[in-house]
């Protein structure tokens, strides 16, 4: 008996948000070293949105949506991309890519708390164990002095934390909102609306815009990878998973992304990976297992 097609799709989608998104910290770090952050994010998402709609037209996929769906995609675009991603890219001017990924790995806890507050959802003991292990892993990584010695680190950390709340709320919102059934089309509208809002913010903050031809080769390749893989492939996978599995399981990508970010930083930027970082990675990945496992530990004396 073969593996169900939906199972294969879910596995590939998780691979995209785990590995591809893990690489975007490095790509954004490379690009933001030369480009203004809001401009960088705006170009990335507007271009990705346009490409998605062109592909949809070529495949004869309907891109028509209702007014309510348009409103919801704009809200999601703001929560995920305009604020949730744009400000993180801005923070990368002050924070190392690996450190940013490490801080964001606390997002599953934020999702669980918001789901408890907003939806009154009961959280399994296994999920709590996973979150605790995640925080232990984060502490092991963040407690390394070489990660917190840069100027502007504190404001960058604070802004990233606010972005985590925005992204977590967006995950819950999208899981219940009336959005286009086609994940590809849904992504296109979110990309385009989020990118336009980022472009408006970029002009309001007086950022300088320049031709892509004037960018360095490394920045050009980084932007291309961010558009094709980080935006179109990974974000479409993310939107698909929010409908296919629970939000807290989707949020486990923030546990794996730091590991990918650290490995790429070591491989490409010659950043140091210490024994403490390796131990932290083991603890973080164990936390992912506990949050993703279907086993439920019931408190004694309490029925289901």
Characteristics:
disordered C terminus; 304 residues; globular; mainly alpha; 13 helices
What is this structure, in a nutshell?
The chain is an all-alpha fold. 74% of the residues lie in helices and 0% in strands.
Explain the overall architecture.
This protein is mainly α and 304 residues long. The protein has one domain (5-292). Helices cover 74% and strands 0% of the residues. It is built from 13 helices and no strands. Helix 1 runs antiparallel to helix 10 (217-244) and helix 7 (125-142) packs antiparallel against helix 13 (275-292). The chain is globular and about 50 Å long.
SSE blueprint and pairings:
Layout: H1 5-32, H2 37-58, H3 67-83, H4 86-91, H5 97-104, H6 107-119, H7 125-142, H8 153-176, H9 183-204, H10 217-244, H11 247-250, H12 253-268, H13 275-292
């Amino acid at each position: 008996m073969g593996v169900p097609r939906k199972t294969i799709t879910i596995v590939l989608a998780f691979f995209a948000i785990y590995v591809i998104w893990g690489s975007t910290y490095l790509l954004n770090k490379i690009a933001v070293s030369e480009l203004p952050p809001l401009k960088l994010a705006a170009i990335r998402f507007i271009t990705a949105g346009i490409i998605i709609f062109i592909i949809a037209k070529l495949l004869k996929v309907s891109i028509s949506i209702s007014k309510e769906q348009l409103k919801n995609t704009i809200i999601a675009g703001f929560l995920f991309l305009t604020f949730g991603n744009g400000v993180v890219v801005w923070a990368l001017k002050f924070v190392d890519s690996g450190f940013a990924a490490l801080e964001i790995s606390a997002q599953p806890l934020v999702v669980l708390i918001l789901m408890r507050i907003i939806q009154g959802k009961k959280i399994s003991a296994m999920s709590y164990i996973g979150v605790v292990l995640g925080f232990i892993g984060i502490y092991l990584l963040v407690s390394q002095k070489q990660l917190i010695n840069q100027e502007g680190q504190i404001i960058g950390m604070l802004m990233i934390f606010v972005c985590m709340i925005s992204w977590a709320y967006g995950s819950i919102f999208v899981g219940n909102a009336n959005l286009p059934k086609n994940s590809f089309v849904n992504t296109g509208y979110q990309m385009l609306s989020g990118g336009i809002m980022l472009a408006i913010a970029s002009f309001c903050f007086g950022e300088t815009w320049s031709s892509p031809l004037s960018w360095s080769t490394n920045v050009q390749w980084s932007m291309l990878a961010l558009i094709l893989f980080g935006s179109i492939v990974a974000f479409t996978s993310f939107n698909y998973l929010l409908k296919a599995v629970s939000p807290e399981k989707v949020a486990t990508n923030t546990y794996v992304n730091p590991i990918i970010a650290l490995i790429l930083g070591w491989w490409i930027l010659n950043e140091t990976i210490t024994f403490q970082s390796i131990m932290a990675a083991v603890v973080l990945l164990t936390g992912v297992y506990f949050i993703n496992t279907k086993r439920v530990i019931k408190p004694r004396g309490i029925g289901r």
